[in-house]
Prior knowledge:
globular; alpha/beta; 36% helix
Amino acid sequence: MSKPAVSAFRQAVYNEAKALKIPIVDERAIDKLGINKGSVGGTVEMRYRDGEETKIKTFLAVAKYHHALVIYKDEMFYILANNTIWRLST
């Protein structure tokens, strides 16, 4: 995806998260962030394509259900919940 499309995707996720009052942690909030992928039971990947707002809403519903925060790193959003990594990317 092109840079403007990635930026629009990121902004769409931020706007929806703000509406749902779900916190997002990114490089503005913390200096160093590491995700230890070796200690999880599974990974769920979701890919966003233009116009698929349902994927954003579904992803954020997972965060809300698990009372988890969303992590933004390397142009991907992550939720760490119950030994599972949920990932939303373009």
